[in-house]
Amino acid sequence: MENAMPILLVPGLVSSARIYVPVIPALWRFGPVTVANHIRDDNIGAMARRILAEAPPRFALAGHSMGGYIAFEIMRQAGERVAKLALINTQARPDTPEATARRRGLMARATGGEYRAVLDELFAGFVHPSRREDAALKQLVYDMGEDVGAEAFVRQQQAVISRADSRPMLAWIKCPTLVLTGDEDNTIPNRLSVEMANGIHGANLVILPNCGHLPQPEQPQATADALVEWLRL
Are 196 and 81 in contact (CB under 8 A)? Predict the structure, then answer.
């Protein structure tokens, strides 16, 4: 394709490149696709710097969940390099004290030999209520958990706890922006996606039906369609 745009995809907490596998075939015809490695650092700023050092000069950027927090930091550090922005099942708000307390509990359990049980607990909030017995989705979460590992999971949680409040920056995001979420995301409620879309001038808000926190494997065709429309802007 002429004038192909590199596409940089950032996974979420305890997620690996596997999360994007269902949608990559629809994206690669628009340009080379890279999935960022976000398991090597324990703060969002360092994650963004490392990803930027490995990224093309200019790219379309999509961040899912924690990947959205990293995407905001990439925008802070090098917004001129981001041609398009997609925020998938994420939020602009900082961590709440309640969320931080829960994260610290999960971190302690993960380092204490209960990592698999932690993945089980997270899975219940990751998927649409109708998919909680979906063996394939549960195996995906286990596989991604193994890709990340307990030590990197703890680093990621530390990074999420200390993330910045990104609401003040919403108004200065000027590139074509997609805000995508599920209608029953029990990890990051879609009202927080509505908040982001309302704060970003011209943002396109897509709320997928029958979908939880993992739209790529839960609703792959609808997610791919939304991302393709975004790339065509």
Answer: no
